[in-house]
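Now for a typical sample entry:
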Amino acid sequence: HDVEKINDYIVSYLAKNSVFVKEVYVCPHRRSDACSCIKPKPFFFQQAAAKFDLDLTASVAVGDHPHDIDTTQNLLGSGVYLLSGHGRKHFHELRAGTLAAPTLREAVDWIFALKQYDNKVLKLQEALHKAGEAIKNGKLAAFPTETVYGLGANAFNTQAVARVFEVKRRPANDPLIVHIADISQAERLVEHFGEKAQKLAERFWPGPLTLVLKKSPNVPDMVTSGFPNIAIRMPDNQLALELIRISGVPVAAPSANPFGYISPTSAEHVRQQLGKEVGIILDGGQCRVGVESTIISFVNTLPEVLRYGGIPIEEIEKLIGPVIRKNTNQAKQLYPGQFPRHYSPHTPVILLKPGENPPEGKSIGLLGFGSSKETAQFTSIEMLSSTGDLDEAAVNLYGALHRLDALNLDVIVARLVPDEGLGTAINDRLRKAANQSIQIPETEKRQTE
C-alpha cells in the first residue's frame, strides 16, 4: 500500500512538470522468494524494452541501491548511483568507477551531459584519468569539491606532499586534510573510529565534514605537520570521488590557492592564483557549497569544533549531542583555516558594526547581504544574497571577494550575517579576512608582495 502511494505521488508530481511515466513496475516478492523479477535481475527492463521498443544500450538506470547499478551490467548503457535515500547507507558497497550523484537533479544533469555533450564528457573523463594517474605517480592536480577547489597529492608520497606546501607557500605547521572515496581508505589512515565519529561519517559523508582522529603510523608526519592526529573527509563531488578512486590512494588536498588568500570556487580562480604551478586543473564548474568543511576533533574526551564550515554545528549536535565551541583562532594545535588572518583578498576588508558608516573619500566595494539600502556611496556592490538566504550567501562569498579584489579598490566593507546555520561559517571567514592587525608569516608576506 505504501509503495503504491509513493509511486502515485511520484508519477503525479512528474506529470505536473511535463514528465510522463508510461509504466511502473513493482516486484511484490521478498528476496527469499527467489523470484525472476527482483533486482538486480533485468526482468522489468526487458519487459519495458519489448513493450516500448527501447534500446537498452542507450538507456540509463538511476537508483539509490547498488542492485540498481548492478542491473545495468551487460544490459543498459550505464547507471548513475544516487547518494540520497538509501544511497549514503550503501555507498561503501559500490564498485570502483561507479558514477554517483548527490541528488536526482544532478543525476539528470549528468545523463544529459552524457547524451547531449558526448565530446565534452569524453574530454573530462580523459582529464580525470590523467589527473588520477598524475596523483598516483607523485604529481599534483587541482580538482573541484562541493566546498572549494583542492590541490591534491598522494597522501603517502612525502615528496608530493612537500610540493603542495611549496606551491601554496603554506607554513609547515599547518596540517593538510586527507580526502577519501570510501571507508576502507579511512581505515588505513586512523587508529579507530569512535561511536560518535562513526555516526557523523554515516550521516554526513560524502559531505563538507572533516573528522580529526588519532592517525595511523602509515601516515607520513609531513601530512599532519608532525602532530599525532589526522584530518580526513569524503567530498560530496562526483569528480573528486572518481579522481580518488582512479588514483587508488587517499589524497591530501588543501584549497588550491596561495596560503592565506581567498579560497577558489572555480577552475578559473585556480588558474589565476596558481597558474603554471599546477599542471592539471579539473574543471567541475562552480562549487555548490562555497565554504570549507566543518572540522570536528575527536582526539580528546569530548568532541570539539575546530572550524565552522559547510555543515552547521546545530545539525551535528542534533546527532551526537553538545560539542565544545572555542575560539577557533586560539587552539594549541593548528588545523586548516585557524590562522587569525585567512581567506583574505589583497584589498583591505573592514567589518562595519551596526549603525557604523563606511569610511569617506575612498573607493569602496560593498559585500552586501539581504535588502541593503546602502548603495550610493559604493564604487561596486556584490550581494551575497538579496533575499537573505545563508546557503546562497555561502556559495557566493569567495567569488564575490575575488571580483571585488580585482577592481583595485581602496577598501571592501561588509557586515556580519545572522550567526546561525551557515552564517556561523560565513562570519568566521569575514572576521579572518578582515583581521589585518597580526604578524603575517614570512611565507605569506612573500606571496602578498
Summary: Residues 436-449 have pLDDT under 50 and may be disordered.
